[in-house]
Design brief:
The complex is a heterodimer of chains A (403) and B (63). Chain A is an alpha/beta fold. Chain A has 10 helices and 26 strands. Helices cover 23% and strands 31% of the residues of chain A. In chain A, strands 3-2-1-7-19 form a 5-stranded parallel β-sheet. In chain A, strand 4 and strand 5 form a beta hairpin. In chain A, helix 1 runs parallel beside helix 9. By secondary structure, chain B is of the alpha+beta class. Chain B has 2 helices and 4 strands. Classes of the chains: A alpha/beta (403), B alpha+beta (63).
Chain lengths: 403, 63
């Protein structure tokens, strides 16, 4: 009697869930074991800095799978279990409850964890934001209009600042570069967009970093490198994330700021693939390796890996156009492609004052990416163009508009 | 096969247009618009892909 083929998916967030769903969509009738470190049924993260944080709904409103769907998909879901080690010779993953789970094929989808410097969370009232538990803890801390300091000017920090402001909190946002979003958008565009949080009444403290915190049991002040102090009752830290790869140490799976994969998301070990925040793969469309911590990539890469598991080389290469969105202060920010802050950046449509514009990013006569503020339809043109021509997309022949 | 659209949920991300260019587009207001209500079976993969890639969960597929 032959044993059913087993796919083991380590990580039960978006990428892992999409792998499982797509395997079933395509008729896979073997076993699928989905291992999730959190006790929660799989859930979606974008609402954690927006609607759910603001108080709309409960954790059940952001589930990626209900328990009925888990049954319908015939998933062996192991919640509250963390992968501790991989033994590629025995083809087994050791879990933190001591069980060694065998697999025929393994998908590494363990995601990323928020970066929090040592001793920063010694005080109460300082929070990272990654999980639904983090979100609900911050949501509860934001009751009663406390003074909030947001550390970090990336998309998550900006969304938290926006949400806290909507809830009536006094908000200070601290970012070492010249303006929030500068690491993504480049200084000039980010400075122009800074009027959006300023108009909403957020105080921006840019060009300096956090040195530490003061307080008693609870945090009371943020100490800045330039000597200034910011009074705060609640601090949310959003300064980036690290791929969760420590459990792969010694397994033979190559890791370098993410699990190294080829163009079809296969790792250095036979039968082992990776998807989502944790995966660093070669994207042939842009002729470079990349690791992306965004929703659309987790969804697409998870689905791609399912096809690669079933069809092997016939699944082709994973070659998407990176895409990320953020919603802040009622405005939608969207970035497509591989723009770099040092690229030549031109506004080609609309203006910051109108709260609607499109900027293109160019390097050496090539289009690298585009940024759209409240202009999804215009951005689609660039997503299509980049999907067709990738690293060889020519600059667009449209005049700049001075902002 | 029928494509189900909840226009109240659509946030205009445009992922469906990228995943299923023969089935989806955005209208002038930037919200989802069906190019074909009941796509043929060969478009099934495009529709499935679009349903999965919609961050707003505004799409569905009914046989």
């Amino acid at each position: 009697m032959s044993r059913r083929r087993r796919v083991l998916v380590a990580g039960a967030s978006l990428a892992g869930v999409r792998t499982a769903e797509t395997l079933r969509d395509r008729g896979f009738d073997g076993e699928i074991v989905l291992v999730g470190a959190e006790q929660q049924l799989p859930y979606d993260r974008p609402p954690l800095s927006k609607a759910l944080l603001e108080g709309q709904g409960t954790a059940d409103d952001v589930r990626l799978l209900t328990s009925d769907q888990v049954s319908a998909l015939d998933l062996d879901l192991r919640l509250g279990r963390r992968a501790l080690a991989l033994d590629p010779v025995r083809r087994a993953v050791e879990l933190d409850d001591g069980e060694a789970l065998g697999y025929d094929q393994l998908v590494i989808a363990t995601g990323s964890a928020p970066w929090m410097p040592r001793d920063w969370d010694l005080f109460e009232g300082i929070y990272p934001l990654r999980t639904v538990d983090d979100c609900l803890a911050i949501r509860s801390a934001l009751q009663g209009s406390p003074r909030v300091a947001v550390v970090g000017g990336g998309p998550i920090g900006c969304e938290v600042a926006s949400t806290a402001r909507r809830l009536g909190c006094e908000v200070v946002q601290i970012e070492p570069l010249a303006a929030p979003m500068a690491r993504v958008l480049g200084t000039e565009i980010a400075l122009a967009c800074a009027e959006i949080p300023l108009d909403a009444g957020v105080r921006l403290v840019c060009g300096t970093a956090v040195e530490g915190f003061d307080g008693g049991v609870r945090v009371e002040r943020v100490r800045l490198r330039d000597g200034r102090m910011i009074e705060a009752d609640v601090v949310v830290v959003g300064i980036g994330a690290r791929p969760v790869t420590d459990w792969l140490f010694g397994s033979g799976v190559s890791v370098s700021d993410g699990v190294m994969c080829d163009d079809r998301c296969a790792t250095s070990v036979a039968g082992v693939y990776a998807a989502g925040d944790v995966a660093r793969w070669f994207n042939p469309l842009f002729e470079q390796t990349m690791r992306i911590e965004h929703w659309t990539n987790a969804s697409e890469q998870g689905a791609f890996v399912a096809r690669a598991l079933l069809d092997g080389r016939q699944a082709g290469s994973y070659s998407p156009v990176p895409f990320v969105w953020s919603e802040q202060y009622g405005v939608k920010y969207e970035v497509a492609g591989v723009p770099h802050p040092t690229d030549r950046i031109r506004i080609v449509e609309g203006s910051v004052a109108e709260r609607r514009f499109v900027a293109v990013y160019e390097r050496e006569e090539r289009l690298t990416g585009a940024f759209a503020l409240n202009s999804t339809r215009s951005l689609l043109k660039f997503r299509r163009l980049l999907a067709r021509d990738g690293a060889h997309a020519e600059r667009v022949d449209v005049p700049s508009i001075s902002s | 096969m029928k494509v189900l659209v909840d226009r109240g949920k659509c946030q205009g991300y445009g992922n469906c247009v990228v995943a299923g260019p023969d089935v989806f587009d955005l209208d002038d207001d930037g919200f989802v618009q069906l190019l074909v209500e009941e796509p043929s079976q060969e478009l099934r993969a495009q529709v499935q892909h679009a349903v999965r890639d919609c961050p707003a969960r505004a799409l569905g597929l009914e046989d």
